[in-house]
Amino acid sequence: MISPETLRRYPYFGTLSPAQLEAIADVAEEISFEKGATIFEESHPANKLYLLVNGSIDFFYKSEEEFYPKSRKEFSVGEVNPGEPFGLGALLDPYIFNATARAAQSSQVLELDAVALRTLFEKDQDLALRLVIQTAKALMARLSAVRVQLAAAWA
Q: Which residue range forms the structural domain that includes residue 32?
């Protein structure tokens, strides 16, 4: 559990009421990752939602040809900056991570139990709506960044 005031500092939680912040604080904790630590892996169940407090997190996608498993490659596809949420697949069905997240440097994150959070959504639809809107905004920003990377790669 963390303090609701900790959550209030971040725009992702900025539209929530004090009661909603308190409910989320009950399912969150602050944890640290050393540089190089894998936080989650692509295609694994998304049981946690994260928000970067400080440090840096990089995203990677894997590419593997079906008939040539030795051709497997990993591509950097983005990064997370302090104050940004990640692991957003934890809030969207089918609840699977769509990238691998690795600490680019020692990092502190808020880790939210996504299963408990989704249970809160069932009880408080206003909370669900507010966080889904914030999640959509974060995903659109991330998509825009990936498009810029793709354009640069093709240039």
A: 4-149
Residue written as token pair 């559990």: 1
Exposure string for 31-46, b = 16+ CB within 10 A, e = fewer: eebeeeeebbebeeeb
- Tell me if 43 is assigned to some domain: yes
- Give the Cα separation of 122 and 117 in Å (integer): 9
**Count of domains in the chain?**
1
Q: What is the pLDDT of residues 75-105, one digit of tens each?
A: 888 899 999 999 999 999 999 999 999 999 9
Distance CA 99, CA 142 (A): 12
pLDDT at 29 over 90: yes
CATH code, domain carrying 133: 2.60.120.10
Residue 119, number of CB atoms within 10 A of its CB: 12
Cα separations (Å) of 65 from 6, 31, 43, 77, 95? Answer: 44, 36, 16, 19, 25
